[in-house]
Specification:
Strand content: 35-45%
Order of helices and strands: EEEEEEEEEEEEEEEEEE
Distance between the termini: 32 Å
Number of helices: 0
Helix content: under 10%
Largest sheet: 6 strands, parallel
Length: about 190
């Protein structure tokens, strides 16, 4: 059990290709990370565009990270164009049987040079039984035109095999929330 994690003010070395992260699980050679509960994590204020708040690197062998559960808290970027979650597939499942419960994921900021819907807020790869329950996934970066799949990116990008990816009672505020006719467009929420 890890309770009340707080991390803020991330700055990226301009010479580094690895993203700045608030919380990262590395790829393991033999074992995995499992059965960890996070209570009210708070990760906020990215000072770099190369940022991933939660980054989980899947193992390349059959011992997959599993049963990681987040309860409450919020992931707030204070910068547009960064990622709240990045699940990295290294040849096997990146994450199994895990959940986010009542977590707020908010992309907000003042760096207006980043166009709305130009990056994915969440990049999920090869997840199995991953659920978002009663979460709020939102952006303050707004578009003034309707969603165009050739020009815009959805808030959530999913690649690989979807085996039980669920969004239960989760509220979305997309970049197109203020555009008439675009408020109910699922393609602006998830790109799978």
């Amino acid at each position: 059990l890890i309770s009340n994690m707080y991390a803020t003010g991330f700055v990226q070395d301009p010479n580094s290709v690895e993203p700045a992260t608030a919380f990262e699980i590395l790829q393991h050679n033999v074992d995995n990370c499992n059965h960890i509960t996070f209570i009210r994590p708070q990760f906020e204020t990215s000072n770099t565009t190369n940022y991933q708040a939660i980054r989980i690197n899947g193992n390349s062998h059959s011992s997959t990270h599993h049963n990681l559960h987040f309860y409450g808290g919020h992931i707030e970027t204070h910068r547009y164009g960064v990622q709240a979650i990045a699940l990295i597939n290294n040849g096997n499942w990146s994450l199994l049987q895990s959940s986010f419960n009542g977590v707020v994921f908010l992309e907000n900021g003042t760096n207006t040079e980043v166009p709305a819907a130009s990056t994915y807020l969440m990049d999920l790869s090869n997840c199995c039984e991953l659920s978002f329950n009663s979460c709020r996934i939102a952006t303050g970066n707004r578009q003034t035109v309707s969603f165009d799949p050739d020009a815009h990116k959805a808030m959530i990008h999913y690649t690989g095999t979807a085996a039980g990816l669920a969004f239960r009672d989760t509220y979305f505020v997309t970049p197109f929330a203020n555009v008439t006719g675009s408020t109910r467009n699922i393609y602006s929420v998830i790109d799978a």
